[in-house]
Amino acid sequence: MIRIENVSFKHRATPILTDISLDIPKGGVVALIGPNGAGKSTLLSLVARLQPLQTGSISVDGLPVDTTPGRDLAKVLAILRQDTTIASRLRVRELVGFGRFPHGRGRLTDDDNAIVDGAIAQFDLADLSDRFIETLSGGQRQRALVAMAFAQGTDYLLLDEPLNNLDMYYARALMRSLRSVADVNGKTVVIVLHDINQASAHADRIVAMKGGRIVADGTPAEILTSDVLDAVFGFRMRVETIDGTPFALHQF
Amino acid sequence: MTAAVSKPSPWTGLIAGLGLAVLFVLSLAVGVSPLPVNRMLSDPEAMQLLAVSRLPRTLAAVLCGAGLAIAGLIMQTLSRNRFVEPATAGTAQSAELGILLVTLLFPAAALWVKTLFAGSVALVGTSIFLATAHRLPPQQPFLVPLFGIVYGGVIGAVATFAAWQADLLQFLSVWTNGEFSGVLRGRYELLWIAALMVAVAWIVADRLTIMALGRETSIGLGIDYARMMQIGLVIVSVITALAVVVVGMIPFVGLAVPNIVSRLMGDNVRGTLGWVAAGGAGLVLACDIAGRLIRYPYEIPVGTVMGVVGGVVFLWLLFRRGGHG
């Protein structure tokens, strides 16, 4: 379980997060939604100890993120940040292989290689595996980064807008992969999404943030209503339910 | 990462090894006093020349070249910028300032004490450079080397001023322009510490590759980023200080070699480290041999030869990059 208690965060004098408390039980897909500047990415980076905690506490499976050795946390929790730029000339297979670093400290066993091969196959990277990352398109690179996070093989997977740069085909494929690791392997996926319909179609739970606070928290059916979405995004949109899944028609 | 590296063919390694061996033997043979290869082992005078002068000189060139190339590689990793190296970004200048200060304050100190002092000043100078480089916008990759050149220039100017005041300008030029003609047995052995630093770099090679992916990816993979930064800084500073104190600074090795290796083989340090070290050793050996031959029987310092060779390579790298967008 990820337990976030009374977390506040300021950038200089500007409050980014105000008194956030949130429990995310093990297993399932949780989507974080909200307008730009809501604090979603900051919250994710605090859970992944990429920034120091200022107030409050966060623990993952009982391990406090601010005092647990980074090496131990890396076996429990993987994060993919938004807009990760890779300037290194690494081949796709090498990059995905580094996802196994927390486990073998650089030495790849047969098991590690099998996991790396699995991640490469799952994200359709086999044909690209000997290419240098810098020669890939934005979407291909994004898939390689997601495969690296998958290869890390952690129980918790934090993804910050992983659908950026992905076309419809791969966006759908990624969401289905996430759904399947949650259902089949019991993993916990926390994902920041801008497309609330992706959240509705694939997440078990949606947490909506605005202005550094959590403003709504519930199942897709509870969150995707005209009233809640108005409160979060600031305009009314029509919501239609198709085959039991609510979809927001936010284009009109 | 054994399975993940697509290795260059064994022939490449063999040819490179042979090339290095040829340079090594050439370096033993070339010099003002002739070294007759055919009766080298029977002639005690020739053996003496080999043991006291030629072999130390050759080993010094190999150690300096390998060390400085690795220092360049690590500095580029830490700053996440391909265009910096110890000679142009303040590390060498800080080491020069350090050795100047310790020479002024404690002229009788042992060579290793002076090296330690120079290394410490280099550590401070490089830390300040990196702390600043990380604040520069990453969208402007040329700002970092530009800042490094200005920063190194300022420290170099302070050293020059201090040396001028103390009437030590000649000493300073010994440290700023590398040459191997003064290398004798008993005067270069500190350089073996550079080999030790290269070994440390080998141990942390995978972590260096990950560090080049950035702070957040490193932390995500469980690397103690701050600690690794310190280890990298120590390696860079120690190697640079050793080079400055023992033979004088040799520019461009740390820039040209890692960039060429990266072009050819990528940036997986576990796979490229050996090539970078061997390339640095070969380049410095070749430049030293050229310096001994161009105006035979006089010598041109290796730093000068390297300045010309490295400058051309640097320009080539810049234009190549421009061509690729």
Structure, described:
The complex is a heterodimer of chains A (252) and B (325). Chain A has two domains: 2-76 and 154-249, P-loop containing nucleotide triphosphate hydrolases (Rossmann fold); 86-153, no CATH class. Chain A is 35% helix and 28% strand. Chain A contains ten helices and twelve strands. Chain A has helices at 40-47, 70-73, 92-98, 101-104, 110-122, 138-151, 168-185, 196-202, 220-223, 226-233; strands at residues 2-11, 14-24, 28-33, 55-60, 63-64, 77-80, 156-160, 188-192, 205-210, 213-218, 238-242, 245-249. In chain A, strand 1 (2-11) and strand 2 form a beta hairpin. Chain A is globular, with a radius of gyration of 18 Å. Chain B is built from 13 helices and no strands. The interface between A and B is medium-sized, with 38 and 31 residues.
Quickly describe the structure.
Chain A: InterPro entries: AAA+_ATPase, ABC_transporter-like_ATP-bd, ABC_transporter-like_CS, P-loop_NTPase, Siderophore_ABC-ATPase. The complex is a heterodimer of chains A (252) and B (325). With 252 residues, chain A is an alpha/beta fold.
Topology:
The complex is a heterodimer of chains A (252) and B (325).
Chain A: E1 2-11, E2 14-24, E3 28-33, H1 40-47, E4 55-60, E5 63-64, H2 70-73, E6 77-80, H3 92-98, H4 101-104, H5 110-122, H6 138-151, E7 156-160, H7 168-185, E8 188-192, H8 196-202, E9 205-210, E10 213-218, H9 220-223, H10 226-233, E11 238-242, E12 245-249
Parallel strand pairs in A: 3-8, 3-9, 6-7, 7-8
Antiparallel strand pairs in A: 1-2, 1-4, 4-5, 9-10, 11-12
Chain B: H1 10-29, H2 44-79, H3 91-105, H4 111-133, H5 143-165, H6 169-176, H7 192-203, H8 205-211, H9 215-220, H10 225-246, H11 253-265, H12 269-294, H13 302-324
InterPro entries (chain B): ABC_BtuC-like, ABC_transptr_permease_BtuC
Main location (chain B): membrane
Family (chain B): Belongs to the binding-protein-dependent transport system permease family. FecCD subfamily.
